[in-house]
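Changelog note: in this version the structure field was regenerated for every chain. One regenerated record is shown below for reference.
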Amino acid sequence: MTVGDRSTPFSQAESDLLQTLSARWTMHILLSLHASDDSGRFGEIQEAVSGISNRVLSSRLADLESRGLVSRNVTATRPVTITYQLTDLGRLVASALTRLREVAKTRFDG
């Protein structure tokens, strides 16, 4: 696909990534994990993503995990500790989102 060539469709991988990122709260979750050194517990993520329900957060994390953007780590402690961490691909996507956010702030905020 060349710049300006709007007739060339996205590849399946590109479409899948864009569809994943366009789901409500997904970018917020990725940015939240990225801002907290790439990992966090469920409650920490929920606190950082104000307004998201338990059910939706759980669903989005499962989707991000299935797509290879987030990994779920279970530590056998009492109680069990579960953390979510950005994968290498997740860090790459979150870094790009952070840069886009910076562009939006400088270009569109004022």
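Spot check on this record: The mean pLDDT is 91. The first helix runs from residue 12 to 22.
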